[in-house]
Protein backbone atom coordinates (compact mmCIF):
# COMPACT_ATOMS: atom_id res chain seq x y z
CA UNK A 1 0.00 0.00 0.00
CA UNK A 2 2.83 2.37 0.85
CA UNK A 3 4.56 1.68 -2.47
CA UNK A 4 1.35 2.39 -4.38
CA UNK A 5 0.81 5.65 -2.52
CA UNK A 6 4.40 6.77 -3.13
CA UNK A 7 4.16 5.82 -6.80
CA UNK A 8 0.91 7.77 -7.27
CA UNK A 9 2.29 10.81 -5.47
CA UNK A 10 5.40 10.70 -7.62
CA UNK A 11 3.37 10.48 -10.84
CA UNK A 12 1.05 13.31 -9.77
CA UNK A 13 3.96 15.57 -8.77
CA UNK A 14 5.64 15.04 -12.14
CA UNK A 15 2.35 15.89 -13.86
CA UNK A 16 1.87 19.13 -11.91
CA UNK A 17 5.51 20.23 -12.28
CA UNK A 18 5.41 19.61 -16.01
CA UNK A 19 2.56 22.09 -16.26
CA UNK A 20 4.73 24.72 -14.56
CA UNK A 21 7.59 24.03 -16.95
CA UNK A 22 5.36 24.53 -19.97
CA UNK A 23 4.37 27.98 -18.71
CA UNK A 24 8.03 28.80 -18.09
CA UNK A 25 8.84 27.73 -21.65
CA UNK A 26 6.12 30.04 -22.98
CA UNK A 27 7.62 32.95 -21.04
CA UNK A 28 11.09 32.16 -22.37
CA UNK A 29 9.78 32.03 -25.92
CA UNK A 30 8.26 35.52 -25.49
CA UNK A 31 11.57 36.84 -24.18
CA UNK A 32 13.46 35.32 -27.11
CA UNK A 33 10.95 36.80 -29.56
CA UNK A 34 11.55 40.27 -28.08
CA UNK A 35 15.29 39.70 -28.20
CA UNK A 36 15.15 38.92 -31.89
CA UNK A 37 13.54 42.30 -32.55
CA UNK A 38 16.58 44.06 -31.07
CA UNK A 39 19.10 45.21 -33.63
CA UNK A 40 22.34 43.28 -33.78
CA UNK A 41 25.22 45.69 -33.21
CA UNK A 42 28.18 43.48 -34.07
CA UNK A 43 29.05 45.71 -37.04
CA UNK A 44 28.80 48.93 -34.98
CA UNK A 45 32.32 50.13 -34.16
CA UNK A 46 32.74 51.68 -30.70
CA UNK A 47 36.27 52.97 -31.28
CA UNK A 48 36.33 56.75 -31.33
CA UNK A 49 32.72 57.09 -30.08
CA UNK A 50 31.54 59.16 -27.11
CA UNK A 51 28.46 58.53 -25.00
CA UNK A 52 26.95 61.00 -22.52
CA UNK A 53 24.86 60.52 -19.37
CA UNK A 54 23.31 63.61 -17.73
CA UNK A 55 21.81 63.46 -14.25
CA UNK A 56 20.22 66.29 -12.28
CA UNK A 57 19.89 66.18 -8.48
CA UNK A 58 18.60 68.75 -5.98
CA UNK A 59 22.01 69.99 -4.88
CA UNK A 60 24.18 69.19 -7.91
CA UNK A 61 24.19 68.09 -11.53
CA UNK A 62 26.37 65.40 -13.04
CA UNK A 63 27.56 64.82 -16.58
CA UNK A 64 29.42 61.64 -17.45
CA UNK A 65 31.22 61.28 -20.78
CA UNK A 66 32.34 57.80 -21.78
CA UNK A 67 34.83 57.76 -24.65
CA UNK A 68 35.98 54.57 -26.34
CA UNK A 69 39.50 55.26 -27.62
CA UNK A 70 40.94 53.90 -30.86
CA UNK A 71 43.60 51.88 -29.02
CA UNK A 72 40.98 49.83 -27.11
CA UNK A 73 41.12 51.79 -23.86
CA UNK A 74 38.47 54.13 -22.52
CA UNK A 75 38.27 57.49 -20.82
CA UNK A 76 35.42 58.52 -18.54
CA UNK A 77 35.07 62.17 -17.59
CA UNK A 78 32.83 63.00 -14.66
CA UNK A 79 31.74 66.65 -14.38
CA UNK A 80 29.95 67.73 -11.21
CA UNK A 81 28.25 71.15 -10.99
CA UNK A 82 27.47 72.33 -7.45
CA UNK A 83 24.24 74.34 -7.55
CA UNK A 84 24.77 76.16 -4.24
CA UNK A 85 28.26 77.53 -5.00
CA UNK A 86 28.19 77.44 -8.80
CA UNK A 87 31.57 75.68 -8.95
CA UNK A 88 32.37 72.73 -11.18
CA UNK A 89 34.56 69.75 -10.39
CA UNK A 90 35.88 67.08 -12.70
CA UNK A 91 37.33 63.59 -12.41
CA UNK A 92 39.03 61.79 -15.27
CA UNK A 93 38.98 58.00 -15.13
CA UNK A 94 40.76 55.66 -17.53
CA UNK A 95 40.47 51.94 -17.99
CA UNK A 96 39.46 49.26 -20.44
CA UNK A 97 36.40 47.47 -21.74
CA UNK A 98 35.31 44.09 -23.06
CA UNK A 99 32.67 43.70 -25.74
CA UNK A 100 30.71 40.61 -26.75
CA UNK A 101 28.15 41.45 -29.44
CA UNK A 102 25.82 44.01 -27.82
CA UNK A 103 27.08 43.54 -24.23
CA UNK A 104 29.86 45.81 -23.03
CA UNK A 105 31.63 45.60 -19.68
CA UNK A 106 33.48 48.77 -18.68
CA UNK A 107 36.13 49.01 -15.95
CA UNK A 108 37.70 52.36 -15.05
CA UNK A 109 40.47 51.63 -12.58
CA UNK A 110 42.67 54.75 -12.83
CA UNK A 111 41.71 58.20 -11.50
CA UNK A 112 43.86 60.86 -13.17
CA UNK A 113 46.71 58.39 -13.69
CA UNK A 114 46.67 56.81 -10.22
CA UNK A 115 45.17 53.38 -9.63
CA UNK A 116 42.12 53.34 -7.34
CA UNK A 117 41.23 50.59 -4.87
CA UNK A 118 37.67 50.03 -6.08
CA UNK A 119 37.30 50.56 -9.85
CA UNK A 120 34.14 51.91 -11.45
CA UNK A 121 32.43 49.04 -13.24
CA UNK A 122 29.50 49.36 -15.64
CA UNK A 123 27.68 46.60 -17.48
CA UNK A 124 26.12 48.15 -20.55
CA UNK A 125 24.01 46.92 -23.45
CA UNK A 126 24.33 48.60 -26.85
CA UNK A 127 20.91 49.45 -28.26
CA UNK A 128 19.40 51.37 -31.16
CA UNK A 129 16.07 53.17 -31.34
CA UNK A 130 15.08 55.31 -34.34
CA UNK A 131 18.70 55.32 -35.57
CA UNK A 132 19.92 56.65 -32.21
CA UNK A 133 22.62 54.51 -30.61
CA UNK A 134 22.74 54.40 -26.83
CA UNK A 135 24.14 52.30 -24.02
CA UNK A 136 21.70 51.03 -21.41
CA UNK A 137 23.09 50.24 -17.97
CA UNK A 138 21.91 46.76 -17.07
CA UNK A 139 21.93 47.41 -13.32
CA UNK A 140 19.95 50.65 -13.09
CA UNK A 141 18.53 51.25 -16.62
CA UNK A 142 20.31 54.59 -17.10
CA UNK A 143 20.93 55.50 -20.72
CA UNK A 144 24.17 56.83 -22.16
CA UNK A 145 23.32 58.53 -25.48
CA UNK A 146 25.86 58.77 -28.28
CA UNK A 147 27.35 62.24 -28.44
CA UNK A 148 26.72 62.64 -32.20
CA UNK A 149 22.97 62.40 -31.56
CA UNK A 150 23.05 65.28 -29.07
CA UNK A 151 24.58 67.76 -31.51
CA UNK A 152 22.02 69.29 -33.83
CA UNK A 153 23.30 69.69 -37.35
CA UNK A 154 22.67 73.05 -39.00
CA UNK A 155 21.40 72.96 -42.57
Characterization of this structure:
The chain has two domains: 1-37; 50-150. It has two helices and eight strands; from the N terminus they run H-E-E-E-E-E-E-E-E-H. By secondary structure, the protein is an alpha+beta fold. It has helices spanning 2-37, 147-150; strands spanning 50-56, 60-68, 73-82, 88-100, 103-111, 114-129, 132-137, 143-146. It is elongated, with a radius of gyration of 24 Å.
SSE layout:
Elements: H1 2-37, E1 50-56, E2 60-68, E3 73-82, E4 88-100, E5 103-111, E6 114-129, E7 132-137, E8 143-146, H2 147-150
Antiparallel strand pairs: 1-2, 1-8, 2-3, 3-4, 4-5, 5-6, 6-7, 7-8
Cα end-to-end separation:
87 Å
Number of domains in the coordinates? 2
* Main sheet specs: 8 strands, antiparallel, barrel
Oligomer: single chain
- The helix/strand series, from N terminus to C terminus, equals HEEEEEEEEH
Which structural class should the secondary elements be placed in? alpha+beta
Helix share, percent: 25-40%
Show unreliable segments: none
Number of strands: 8
| Morphology call | elongated
Rounded mean pLDDT is 77
- CA-atom Rg in angstroms: 24 Å
- Give the count of helical stretches: 2
User: How are strands sequenced across the largest beta sheet?
Assistant: 1-2-3-4-5-6-7-8
Into which percentage range does the β-strand content fall?
over 45%
Amino acid sequence: MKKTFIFLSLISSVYFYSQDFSSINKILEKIEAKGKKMKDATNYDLKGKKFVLVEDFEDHGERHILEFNIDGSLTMIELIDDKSTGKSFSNIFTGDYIRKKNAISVRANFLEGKQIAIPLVYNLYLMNANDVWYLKDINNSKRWIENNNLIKKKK
